[in-house]
């Protein structure tokens, strides 16, 4: 069997958006072990401008029973243009997928922006392809790098200095992975001010941990961020140093946050309690070296905030209503 597929600017609806697709391809098929497909052009774009960053994706390449080689991959939007190549290689044993390899490298021709991705999926037990097997028994290994990746690819109102730099790796199964993310110094524009951040993040069977992290934005600096979170139990803790200057008044707040579920194992995220403490808030904003002690509780219908063991500020939010009062230890 031989054939071809050709069309230009075919409208395709995806959610609320309309894309146009153009394809030029030829194919030959004799059997599952003897076929070829050549795509000389595959082009998808969003021409209306409804999506602010105007994505445009193109590729060309050829494939056979061993995989597909992308001789050209291009991604373009209002932020930048990235070009590169890629490979998608699969292995079959008696018609069952035993491995899948992905390798993609994209870079800008006029800047240092770069995207590298390499990943593999192994099926050592030769299990049939299903969602359950993919989640539990297929072994995944992946690593990638973003270098000076323009944040304008996914956020509006960004400039050329707003870039993401990161390295990541992932191993294990989808249900039980080990993921490492190193966020190198990165920046986005948030509410008119540059927000810069870096840090290390690890997700494994114990939960999420954060170390050596920092965030700067406008007058605020949050550094020495260290913490952990266990999603299954909905418990976690975080320590950080918050400092800055507001209205020519400085503040330094060593912060400790503890989060726990009031109904662990039973709809854990619906009933939460967070304790926010600082033993010594200093600076000209707090001339008396004040302390901070807040307890926030939340359920499906109510949020309560209590400070100083009930002797400070008390507040509650219920639906669209809000109530607040101050006690004898309140600064108000």
Written overview of the protein:
There is one protein chain. 2% of the residues lie in helices and 68% in strands. By secondary structure, the chain is an all-beta fold. The chain has a 21-stranded antiparallel beta sheet, with no helix packed on it. Strand 20 (313-318) and strand 21 form a beta hairpin. The protein is elongated, with a radius of gyration of 26 Å.
Question: Could you give a quick summary of the protein structure above?
Answer:
The protein has 332 residues and is mainly β.
Instruction: Sum up the overall morphology in one term.
Output: elongated
Radius of gyration, taken over Cα atoms and rounded to an integer in Å: 26 Å
**Helical residues, percent:** under 10%
Oligomer: single chain
Largest sheet features: 21 strands, antiparallel
Secondary-structure topology with pairs:
Elements: E1 2-14, E2 17-31, E3 34-45, E4 56-64, E5 67-76, E6 81-93, E7 96-107, E8 114-122, H1 131-136, E9 139-150, E10 163-172, E11 177-190, E12 193-204, E13 207-217, E14 220-230, E15 235-246, E16 249-261, E17 272-281, E18 290-298, E19 302-307, E20 313-318, E21 321-326
Antiparallel strand pairs: 1-2, 2-3, 3-4, 4-5, 5-6, 6-7, 7-8, 8-9, 9-10, 10-11, 11-12, 12-13, 13-14, 14-15, 15-16, 16-17, 17-18, 18-19, 19-20, 20-21
Quick tags:
single chain; mainly beta; 332 residues
């Amino acid at each position: 069997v031989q054939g071809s597929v050709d069309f230009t600017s075919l409208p395709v609806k995806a959610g609320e958006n309309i894309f146009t697709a153009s394809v030029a391809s030829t194919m030959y098929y004799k059997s599952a072990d003897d076929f070829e497909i050549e795509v000389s052009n595959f082009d998808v774009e969003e021409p209306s401008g409804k999506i602010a960053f105007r994505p445009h994706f193109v590729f060309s390449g050829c494939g056979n029973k061993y995989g597909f080689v992308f001789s050209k991959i291009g991604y373009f939007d209002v932020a930048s243009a990235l070009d590169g190549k890629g490979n998608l290689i699969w292995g079959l044993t008696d018609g069952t997928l035993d491995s899948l390899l992905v390798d993609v490298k994209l870079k800008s021709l006029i800047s240092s922006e770069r995207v590298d991705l390499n990943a593999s999926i192994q099926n050592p037990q030769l299990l049939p392809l299903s969602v359950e097997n993919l989640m539990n028994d297929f072994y995944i290994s992946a690593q990638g790098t973003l270098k000076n990746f323009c944040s304008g690819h996914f956020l509006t109102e960004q400039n050329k200095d707003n870039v993401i730099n990161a390295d990541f790796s992932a191993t294990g199964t989808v249900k039980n992975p080990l993921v490492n993310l190193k966020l190198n110094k990165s920046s986005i524009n948030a509410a008119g001010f540059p927000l810069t951040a870096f840090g290390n993040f690890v997700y494994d069977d114990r939960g999420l941990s954060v170390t050596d992290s920092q965030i700067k934005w406008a007058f605020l600096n949050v550094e020495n961020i260290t913490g952990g979170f266990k999603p299954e139990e909905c418990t976690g803790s975080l320590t950080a140093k918050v400092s800055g200057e507001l209205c020519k008044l400085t503040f330094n707040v060593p912060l400790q946050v503890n989060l726990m579920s009031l109904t662990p194992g039973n709809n854990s995220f619906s009933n939460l309690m967070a304790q926010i403490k600082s033993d010594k808030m200093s600076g000209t904003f707090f001339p008396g070296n004040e302390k901070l002690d807040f307890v926030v509780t939340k359920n499906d219908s109510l949020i309560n905030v209590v400070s100083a063991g009930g002797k400070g500020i008390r507040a509650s939010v219920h639906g669209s209503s809000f109530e607040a009062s101050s006690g004898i230890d309140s600064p108000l």
